[in-house]
Amino acid sequence: MISTRCRGWLVSALILVALAAPGTVWAHCFPERSEPKVGATVNAPQMVRIWFDGALEAGFSTLMVKDHNGKRVDKGDGHVDAKDKKLLEIGVPPLKPDTYHVYWKVVSRDGHRTTGDFPFTVR
Fold first, then answer.
1. CA atoms of 100 and 43, how far apart (whole Å)
2. What is the mean pLDDT of residues 116-123?
3. How far apart are the C-alpha atoms of 114 and 73, rounded to whole Å?
4. So what CATH class is 28-122?
5. Can you list the positions of beta strands (E) in the chain?
6. Residue ranges of the domains in the chain?
7. Which of 16, 31, 67, 103 could bridge 117 with an S-S bond, Cβ 3.0-4.6 Å?
8. Shortest CA distance to 112 belongs to which of 27, 35, 45, 22?
9. Are the CB atoms for 72 and 101 separated by under 8 Å?
């Protein structure tokens, strides 16, 4: 039988081990930066790129760009970069001056899903 004192040490040790485990076990991927930047006014870009803080699952991560009417305007070629698993990108045709919205849905390597969106304006 384990004494009360030993049980206390055992519980404390288990809590410390759980807290010291790598953060990716419970992590979600969130954007670190993007091109164009969130809310920026830019010349027409050829690509929209978002870099995340963790590796993405390519088969479950999507990106799209829509105009102010909600019409999809990207080339439909969104993908996780083969060399940089933290980069999600999509091509866009020459964009007219307007405000556009970028929508992303990603799944991190640990299976957690996050979504978001942001605007940018083409001058």
1. 12
2. 98
3. 22
4. mainly beta
5. 31-35, 41-42, 47-52, 62-66, 79-80, 87-91, 98-107, 113-122
6. 28-122
7. 103
8. 27
9. no
